[in-house]
Design brief:
The chain is built from three helices and 13 strands. It has about 270 residues and is an alpha+beta fold. The chain has a seven-stranded antiparallel sheet. A four-stranded mixed sheet has the order 11-10-9-12. A hairpin with a 5-residue loop joins β2 and β3.
Length: about 270
């Protein structure tokens, strides 16, 4: 789908954040000079716009698993009492290049996720994107990530308890990219919130510091800023992982400066 371009309302006053009025599930892009592009026709050439974002509704869910690894416990209720927006896809190489001017990825492709990026690199990208759009982008918190990955489900994956065939890119996922390379974003069907590739392709950095349990974890959607903050949480598994690592509840950790071919990220936006 294309996008309709909404011009500035007035010459001197910045446009109000039109995204606040969009319904859950709406897709939009923030552009330069406080402009917003929403589903419809095409954006004029030469105008910088950020990644496609999806409006996520508030809700509650049970975070963690009693059958997974020990750091997925204790299972606890999280209340997301606010709307926010999440990247429809993992940040792509073309999006990274448009903001940063480089492409560190090993598996080249404009529509493939950017990889070989650290947590610190992701924060640098977000800082520049905020400066270009005038909006407040950030990494997802860990609980936000699991909330949107589950998309209202309680199963191991958003489509059920079995990895199946052709649902994701991982080791033994049944795709042509399995255990070889990243896949173009959106190669697999979206989940119930309209988001793609939460399971597999690349691990996704989130904001939280890593702790080896959920003891004392926030229950309101905020990030955990205690624990070993030299290590940050990654979610979702990658093209090189077994299906068990793609589960909605699965967790991983990495040094904030680590750059490997299966580390990428997805962005969120405060509304």
């Amino acid at each position: 789908a294309g996008f309709v371009y909404a011009p500035l309302l007035g010459d001197t006053k910045p446009e109000p954040d039109r995204v606040r009025s969009l319904s859950a599930g709406a897709v939009f892009r923030d552009c330069e000079n406080a402009l917003v592009a929403t589903s419809g026709a095409s954006v004029p050439g030469g105008v910088f716009c950020g990644p496609e974002m999806v409006v996520i509704p508030p809700g509650s869910f049970m975070m963690g698993s009693t059958t997974g690894y020990s750091d997925e416990q204790p299972v606890h209720k999280v209340d997301i009492g606010y709307r926010f927006a999440v990247g429809r896809y993992e940040v792509t190489q073309s999006e990274w290049r448009s903001v940063m001017g480089t492409d560190p990825s090993g598996f080249k492709g404009a529509d493939r996720p950017v990889e070989n990026v650290s947590w610190a690199d992701a924060q640098a990208f977000i800082g520049k994107l905020n400066a270009r759009t005038g909006r407040t982008y950030r990494l997802l918190t860990e609980s936000e990530w699991e909330y949107v990955a589950r998309a209202g489900t309680t199963t191991e994956y958003s489509w059920g308890n079995d990895i199946g065939r052709g649902n994701a890119n991982c080791r033994s996922c049944g795709s042509r990219w399995d255990n070889r390379e990243t896949s173009p974003v959106g190669s697999f069907r979206a989940n119930g919130f309209g988001l793609h590739d939460l399971h597999g392709n690349v691990w996704e950095w989130v904001e939280d510091c890593y702790k080896n349990s959920y003891s004392g974890a926030p229950t309101n959607g905020s990030a955990n800023t205690t624990g070993d903050c030299r290590k940050r949480v990654l979610r979702g598994g990658s093209w090189s992982n077994n299906p068990v690592n793609l589960r909605s509840a699965n967790r991983f950790r990495g040094d904030t400066g680590s750059r490997v071919s299966f580390y990428g990220f997805r962005i969120a936006r405060t509304l």
